[in-house]
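sorry to bug you again but im stuck and you know this stuff better than me. theres a chain ive been looking at and ive put its sequence and its fold in token form underneath. id like you to explain what the token line says about the fold, in plain words if possible. anything you notice is useful, everything is just below.
___
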Amino acid sequence: MSEPKVPIPAPEDTYKGWLFKWTNYIKGYQRRWFVLSNGLLSYYRSQAEMGHTCRGTINLATANITVEDSCNFVISNGGTQTYHLKASSEVERQRWITALELAKAKASRMQAESDDSGDDSTSPAASQGAGSRNSEVQSTLRTLNSKVEDLSTCNDLIAKHGSALQRSLSELEGVRLGGETSEKIRQVTERATLFRITSNAMINACRDFLALAQAHSKRWQKALQAEREQRVRLEETLEQLAKQHNHLERAFRGATVLPSSQSNPAIDSKGPVPGKGDVSDEDEENEFFDACEDVQEFITVPADPKYHRSVFTASPLSKRRSRIPDKPNYSLNLWSIMKNCIGKELSKIPMPVNFNEPLSMLQRLSEDLEYYELLDRGAKCQSSLEQMCYVAAFTVSSYSTTVHRTGKPFNPLLGETFELDRVQESGYRSLCEQVSHHPPAAAHHAISERGWTLRQEIALASKFRGKYLSIMPLGSIHCIFEKSNHHYTWKKVTTTVHNIIVGKLWIDQSGEIDVVNHRTGDRCHLKFAPYSYFSRDVARKVTGVVTDKDGKAHYVLSGTWDEKMECSRVMQSSRGGENGADGRQKTVYQTLKAKELWRKTPLPEGAENMYYFSTLALTLNEPEEGVAPTDSRRRPDQRLMEQGRWEEANAEKQRLEEKQRTVRREREREANRSANPAEEGKEPADGGKPMWFERQVDPMTREPTHIYRGGYWEAKEQGNWDSCPDIF
């Protein structure tokens, strides 16, 4: 009968699993989740409690472990803590016993070493020279000794279970064929299983010892080679110092006459210096400089190559601004404006600038590149699954700037653009254009010198429901890595603005995202948990699983969309956790230690007075020379609002919106005339089509979308904006 594969406890591993713990005579044994780590055995009611509530912990260094029967065992520290535990089978019990005995032996050794180290004392002078080097060697020796002790413990266990197996085999030889044969065979099978488990633990311990010994052997060889090279450098330096010392002595003996600029007139007037004869001023000067001619100003000692720097430096970058004018304290009741707009599209609600922030939607879209470094790192990955982790972290990081940003961005005018040229600082450049007004849609294209391209077309569908405002982004985001040709796509989640009627506005992100690698079939499923007052989970939680094309999990992602994301490599997965909300068992992942993928950069000082803008957001509306006349930086109402002149900004906003309506009506009339055969040949009015993007069917998703056609950066280089419409 085959058994499910369970990880064999290795000496250094954290061991986890379900056990039944005796609670009291009323409830009896209750199922609990136990974790063995660093010589401590802790338990929880469920795996979900591991992050916040530990129900009890016992130190194995001073504990006694006794076996009661085939499934039951007891752990006691001789004091108030006693755990009566029961495993699901004898094999499972023996796995725990093996892991506990190994952990106890290691904890006892560590405690003894700690006591010994506390008794030793070394003078600061003696430890100054070789302290760090000796401590490293001593630490390695202690680790190797610990491994040897683990091997010794495993050897004792193998001897113990081997003897038991031998006894069972001897008993089996003397058994007559009959009813007790099957029972004896079962016992032998269990003994053989226990022997296999212990042998595997021994093999794991041997493997760890061998790997550690090999690794440290290589390190010591490198350290020895480094010491030899350092010794050679020191010998060369000493030789150079000796030569310079000789030069200085000769110079001192030869330069007995001071230079004319430093000579004493009283001494010079007395004639020649005794012992030197007649020497002219010219001879004195020549003699002085000849003596010092071979003396170097400083000593050059070879440095580690990592400290070498190129002598060529890039041209200095212009410093970008780090502040904008503080937000004025103008009070206005949002409900008085929006109570008549329930059920309408947000883009069709006339809003004063009082509820805006001095950025356009195109600039907000460009803020997705706040943490572009994640894509830079992803471009360097050799593994597509690891690359998927960085892409998934990038999708989450784009929401981190929204946590306090309750202001509404300006709706871009049709044909409005925004460029973000960060080639010198960050290696990328980005262009956005408003390609549709009703429904509002913006196209975005960014390309990096570091091997990635990002493009997207986002249309916003929004509804005001009285108590909250829901914003649903429509459209796909594409990320293509040049070197591997991996093509990723995903969509955005729903943004909800709460407390529209009363209370402080706050923002939540909720929904699910599927990041798909169309070349390999890898997938990452991300879940943005909606905020719930009754939930015990951390707020703004995001979880995800990275799977290959066959659905096998390789990484688990966790974190929050406003702070950080981490990934853990999956070593084994099984169904055996608590039942989820849908009644099915949750999948339990055994993972390695978590690795941080992304962490939010703190906001600049005084951000609460500057619309909670990030460092990047503060620079987006900074005036720049050479941008297109349609660039958002040139929008007058937005500029007036940033300067705190809100009344003028409201008047300018109304003028621009009326101008856009007039242009749209004229464009519709031109389109109608073009449809008339008598008017055939006439071109539609300017602004009817996007300038820098063209509508195509995406070859990957088969969705109609706007893709960058090129020409913008060439036009900027030539300073030729004649084809741009006059929208401001």
Q: What stands out?
A: The mean pLDDT is 79. The two ends are 79 Å apart (CA to CA). DSSP finds 14 helices and 26 strands in the chain.
